[in-house]
Amino acid sequence: MKSKMMNKLSEWLTDEASALEREMEASQERAADEDEAALTPAEIRWAQEEKEEEERIARRLNEWTDETGTKISRTLYSILCLVICLTLIVLLLYTVTELPSFGSPDHPINNEVSARYIEKGLQETGAVNIVTGMILDYRAFDTLGESSVLFTAAMVVLFLLRKDKESHKYSPLAKVMHDNPHSDTYYEPKNDIILQKTAFVLVPIVLLTGVYVVLNGHLSPGGGFSGGAIMGAGLILYVIAFGFAKMRRFFTYKTYQFVVLIALLTYACSKCYSFFTGANHIPSVIPLGTPGAILSSGLILVLNICVGFVVTCTMYCFYAVFRKGEL
Amino acid sequence: MLFVQNFPFMTILLTLICAVVTSVLSGRNARRLTIMMLSVVTVMTAAVMVYTLSTGDSYVYMMGHFPAPWGNEIRVGVLETTMMMVFCVVILFSFLGGMLPSIREIERSKYNIYCILVDLLFLALQALVYTNDLFTAYVFIEINTLAAAGLVMMRQKGRNLVAGVRYMIMNLLGSSLFLFGIVLLYSITGHLLMENIRESVAVLVETGEYKVPLTIVVALITVGLALKSALYPFEKWLPGAYSNATPSVAAMLSSLVSKGYIFLLIKVYVRVIGFDVICSMGVLDVLFIFGLMGMIMGSVSAVRAKTTRMMVAYSSVAQIGYIFTALGLRSEIGIVCALWHMAAHAATKSMLFISCAEMDDACGGTHLRKNLRGAFYHSPLLALAFSLGAINLTGIPLLSVFMTKVTLVQAAIDVGGRHMGLVLGTVAISTLLNAVYFLGTAVNLFTPTKEGDEVLPPTVRKNRYTVVGLIGLIALNLVMGVLSQPILTALAEGLTRFA
Prior knowledge:
- The complex is a heterodimer.
- By secondary structure, chain A is mainly α.
- Chain A is built from twelve helices and no strands.
- Chain A is extended and about 75 Å long.
- The two termini of chain A are 54 Å apart.
- In chain B, helix 7 runs antiparallel to helix 9, helix 7 packs across helix 10 and helix 13 runs parallel beside helix 19.
- The model of chain B has no long low-confidence stretch (mean pLDDT 89).
- By secondary structure, chain B is an all-alpha fold.
- Chain B is built from 21 helices and two strands.
- The two termini of chain B are 24 Å apart.
- In chain B, 77% of the residues lie in helices and 2% in strands.
- Chain B has a domain of 218 residues.
- At the A-B interface, helix 1, helix 2, helix 3, helix 5 and helix 11 of A face helix 1, strand 1, helix 4, helix 5 and helix 6 of B.
């Protein structure tokens, strides 16, 4: 009886799902043929009414602002801004003077928390750089969140600005990029010889420095975030000098998706393992290695590499999408 | 450790992994995966809720091999799981209910990004509810803000972009004030873990040390989170964002995002600073006054709104006012009332947003209030869901919001004095205004159209996902109305263990 009902329900919803697929196709077709006849009379009228009202409001607003509005609101706005900002500044400055003096030994932050990070950090995490040990082992959950922040930001930017064959019909931002042939990339490739020769020397050095900073994140200052930023800068320099066509030979949107997917999945899965074993008091089987060696400190090296990849790709993605609307 | 105790951590990681995997899926598969993930998380949360209710106790879960304060941890108790359960059901059915409009309005090749942002929003919400560490809270506030701003701009019309940018600016201001607050608090206590800060603050209050920084901390955190949850004078970003976004997003933003921030604020008050310390500071009086003003002003704007969605959006301002007023009463029962209203409002407002958006489409897509006349006769379920939400928010016995009003008045009478008079007066006026705009609209739905009236044809066909979503939300509302007393008792018990 029960299973029959479940079957019916699932059948019913599957029907709906296929109907929704058709809806999706239809919506794409609707977007494809742009003529106004596709709209219902009510929609057209509503759009007209809306437009008329907007025009009326705009007219009234313009009249009013031209005469008195600008003056009053500007004065009022600047006075209010000044008052609020000054109050905040004074309050915060006063608060800072009341805070414990920075660097003094009896500062509240010199407590058992930082003591353990400093004294036992090397022994417990295997990382010579205790900052890395702290962010990628002790407080790895926060850092997982931080990497997801980058992922979120990249997704929002890709959504708003990336153009593909249909997006300029939906998105005003993508439309601007689509309709404007004289944009930044119009004259590409620029083939600036000085820039290209300099980049030819610099890009490998920059990329290698980035790789070094990422791989040595647990041994010396640096790590995934800083190394990733350096590598991202290297990629951006390359694309400025040689243009997107050459960049696409090894880095496309697919590459971006794949690298970020693998990096974040590795990060999340390895942390799944360590959170689960940690909370259930199961000893972890990942060896810490000899402190100071490049292959040491357990998962930290892997996590640094993952974070490095995410940051590199995100930096380059921001640059490319803001400049050109695609990767 | 029992296996069920692992579930909160698993749901958090599962949500994140789904979000990451969704980035390479097609829109169709992204939708399927998201529905599956939301259902699995709902079931797992239900299991944890049953477990915490049966033990009545809370536990901390170590995120890694190091105990807090060195490592991160999450805390799971009756209060957290009960709230989370409501949020899970609301997000699942909001996602289902607004499926068709979202498909129509969002660019097809980027539909998977919509699903990713929903996943990330849900991830941040879970982390905010469960976290036991202030910095973790901040990290997930960032994710929440970015994802929510992206979701507001999902429908890429000019109005949405404007609303999204406004949302972004106001919310970033809120986040940065909150961050200032955490930094100052860290430098006077030396801790980020909630229990440890609580102990340090107790010592500081006793010795009278760092009095000014502590006050500033409370002020910064309160203003930051009040800005983000649209308390009355900071509500200017809300109507545009809620009324123009695609219905699922409007439902999620109004019922989950702002509630997550209020839950965090309650957490800061009760678990981090200590409620007695907060009461001695006068910040609650400010919240109380602004809450009362919000109750009136939100309703006044709602009465004047021309479209139903604008009306529902403005009524959120009024409802947020209820929550902050309850919080400002300085009593345990006030906080319980605030928590209950968060849950009740989440369940009701999501149903209202989804039903009124679909009803607009069924009545010619003009969005105007006057065109909804007689909607019951061609789309009965939508009209019933909307009217249920409307009479619920007006405060009819046996439904959830009525319980809020009763508890609020009870709390005010306990406090007595000026507070009592103000609350009684404002609740009366606000209920009257609610009745004017909500009941007015609801009656309009059931009034048959007359001969001369023009009836606009529906712009979309009816679909079954909306039916499933709305039936789910109606059921949630009815269950919450019937079980209001047990849930309130559970919340009150959870709160005593929360501190």
